[in-house]
UniProtKB/TrEMBL annotation:
Pathway assigned to this chain's UniProt record: Cofactor biosynthesis; molybdopterin biosynthesis
Catalytic reaction list: (8S)-3',8-cyclo-7,8-dihydroguanosine 5'-triphosphate = cyclic pyranopterin phosphate + diphosphate
Known function: Catalyzes the conversion of (8S)-3',8-cyclo-7,8-dihydroguanosine 5'-triphosphate to cyclic pyranopterin monophosphate (cPMP).
Pfam families per the UniProt record, alphabetical: MoaC
Domain of life of the source: Bacteria
PANTHER family assigned to the protein according to its UniProt record, in alphabetical order: MOLYBDENUM COFACTOR BIOSYNTHESIS PROTEIN 1 (PTHR22960:SF0), MOLYBDOPTERIN COFACTOR SYNTHESIS PROTEIN A (PTHR22960)
Domain Molybdopterin cofactor biosynthesis C (MoaC): 1-136
Keywords: Lyase, Molybdenum cofactor biosynthesis
Name by which UniProt lists this protein: cyclic pyranopterin monophosphate synthase
Enzyme Commission no: 4.6.1.17
Amino acid sequence: MVDVGDKAVTSRTAVAESLVVMSSAALEQVIAGNNKKGDVFATARIAGIQAAKRTADLIPLCHTLLLSSVKVTLEVLPERHAVRIECRVRTSGQTGVEMEALTGASLAALTVYDMCKAVDKGIRIENTALVVKTGGASGEWHRQEASDI
């Protein structure tokens, strides 16, 4: 594991996103709130938050971080038959939270898949990517190309 002991403690933020593309029937079920497993958005939000908090347990060599905030938002994109997921993570520490944001977005997307697979096994998880990173020695970073999401 990388030694971050000499790094300055700074406020750090990372935002990652993912897209879950599904059939119109599966998306209609999500919108209507009548999924047999329950509230897709609430469950995916909780899964994303829990995943971000447990990233060090899931990804080898990640530092255990005290997160000050994890926010997972889900948005229906009806024209694309998709759900866009954003995971925003904050901490004050010696290392960044990019992996926590990516893990949160990924697990929220997998949860949407799990809850909707009975209607559509062909669901795709696409474009999982880091969008913004702030803080630390490298400063602020934004994805250069326009988001596909």
